[in-house]
């Protein structure tokens, strides 16, 4: 923006930029910029077109990830507890950068649920978890956010179920919010009122959506936010039933039964998440750990596929840290998360302790401590921050 800047000043700026470009060759720029934190690299894209194009190349991406020892898609696990979001499983590169205290409503939040959704490093936040009228799209690395137009009030004193989808499609990334109003009655229903917001239009749209069979949405109120995967928002209820919402076509084409072989579950005994670009659900039933992958077909119905079934009490399964097994074998313990990069690692909560269960190294060990929590989220953090898409003026 050149607003309020005179022609003389603009000439000086252009002259300064040309001097910078004349001094630093591409190889020198790469050597310098690859050492910077991801949020600084993102800001450097605004210096000039040459810097932006250089930072956007695959060559720079590989050099940056190699220098910071990143896999190319690092992640953290967040537990939602009391009035704050507690974080663990952080890559050191992001540990000092991730925060939410810059949000204007952060200190006044009295609910445990102001992070309503997440996708590709962006968070969907609302200071009022009850009515959810004023959403914010937040980047916790660059500490930037944008407020959305007020969502249409449903006129009912009910919680809503919401999800965030992000599309990185160049040259114009976009996002979409899906906001479902559960029926007033607690009984199952097949028709729901849905509000959607798209950054391309900058408007909320209300519509009625039907499902293949009745759904009891109250089962979703205290579950983790949905995952956006293969074009669908995936919700799971407390009985491991999965609901798939087609974001582009605004419909619910599939409701999947629990995976074959699953025990009678509650929301505390299983977790689901993305790992290595695939969607998994893991269940801990006493000392038996089961992991399934949800496989999307090119055509037809997605299907669950068993990937792991391990009896932790067997010596061939766990060789180190067996002191934890008596508690695991006799208690109904919550699974907190699947490691976002290694399907062989899951996290179990025993009171205020997080226990890492590594099937490859056959090890149980204490990982960290967390306060009592009511939700766990696995948040993808790209090597450098996701830009918040521009919202079209309505």
Which value, in Å, is the CA radius of gyration?
A: 23 Å
User: What is the string of helix and strand elements?
Assistant: HHHHHEEHEEEEEEEEEEEEEEEEHEEEEE
| SS-based class | alpha+beta
Which oligomerization state do the chains in this entry correspond to? Answer: single chain
How would you describe this structure to a colleague?
By secondary structure, the chain is of the alpha+beta class. The protein folds into three domains: 7-68, no CATH class; 72-257 and 374-394, no CATH class; 259-371, no CATH class. Helix content is 15%, strand content 38%. It contains seven helices and 23 strands. It has helices at residues 7-23, 26-33, 38-44, 49-55, 58-68, 92-95, 325-330; strands at residues 74-81, 84-88, 115-119, 122-125, 136-139, 144-147, 161-167, 174-181, 189-198, 203-215, 227-229, 232-236, 242-246, 251-256, 270-275, 278-285, 288-295, 303-311, 335-338, 345-350, 353-358, 363-369, 375-381. The strands form six sheets. It has a four-stranded antiparallel β-sheet, with no helix packed on it. A four-stranded antiparallel β-sheet has the order 7-8-9-10, with no helix packed on it. The chain is globular and about 60 Å long. This is F-box domain-containing protein. InterPro entries: At3g26010-like (IPR055290), Beta-prop_At3g26010-like (IPR056592), F-box-like_dom_sf (IPR036047), F-box_dom (IPR001810). It holds the Pfam family F-box-like.
């Amino acid at each position: 923006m050149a607003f309020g800047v005179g022609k003389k000043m603009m000439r000086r700026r252009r002259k300064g930029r040309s001097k910078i470009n004349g001094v630093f060759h591409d190889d020198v720029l790469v050597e310098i910029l690859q050492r910077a934190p991801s949020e600084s690299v993102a800001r450097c894209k605004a210096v000039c077109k040459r810097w932006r194009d250089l930072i956007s190349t695959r060559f720079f991406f590989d050099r940056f990830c190699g220098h910071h020892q990143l896999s190319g898609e690092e992640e953290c696990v967040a537990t939602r507890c009391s009035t704050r979001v507690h974080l663990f499983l952080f890559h050191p590169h992001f540990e000092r950068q991730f925060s939410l205290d810059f949000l204007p409503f952060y200190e006044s939040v009295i609910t445990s649920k102001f992070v309503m959704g997440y996708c590709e490093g962006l968070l969907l936040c609302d200071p009022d978890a009850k009515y959810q009228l004023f959403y914010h799209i937040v980047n916790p690395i660059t500490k930037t956010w944008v407020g959305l137009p007020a969502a249409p009030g449903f006129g009912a004193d009910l919680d809503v179920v919401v999800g965030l989808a992000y599309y990185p499609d160049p040259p114009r990334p976009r996002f979409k919010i899906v906001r479902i109003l559960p029926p007033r009655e607690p009984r199952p229903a097949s028709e729901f009122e849905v509000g959607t917001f798209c950054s391309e239009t900058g408007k909320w749209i209300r519509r009625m959506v039907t499902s293949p069979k009745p759904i009891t949405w109250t089962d979703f109120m205290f579950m983790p936010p949905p995952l956006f995967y293969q074009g669908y928002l995936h919700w799971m209820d407390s009985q491991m039933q999965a609901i798939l919402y087609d974001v582009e076509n605004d419909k619910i084409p599939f409701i999947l039964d629990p995976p074959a072989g699953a025990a009678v579950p509650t929301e505390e005994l299983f977790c689901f998440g993305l790992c290595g670009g695939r969607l998994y659900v893991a269940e801990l039933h006493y000392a038996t750990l089961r992991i399934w992958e949800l496989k999307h077909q090119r055509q037809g119905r997605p299907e669950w596929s068993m990937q792991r079934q391990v009896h932790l009490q067997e010596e061939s399964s766990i060789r180190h840290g067996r002191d934890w097994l008596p508690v695991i074998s006799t208690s109904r313990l919550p699974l907190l998360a699947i490691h976002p990069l290694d399907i062989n690692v899951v996290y179990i909560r025993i009171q205020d302790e997080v226990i890492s269960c590594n099937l490859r190294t056959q090890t149980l060990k204490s990982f960290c401590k967390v306060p009592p929590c009511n939700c766990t989220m696995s948040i993808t953090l790209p090597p450098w921050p996701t830009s918040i898409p521009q919202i079209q003026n309505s």
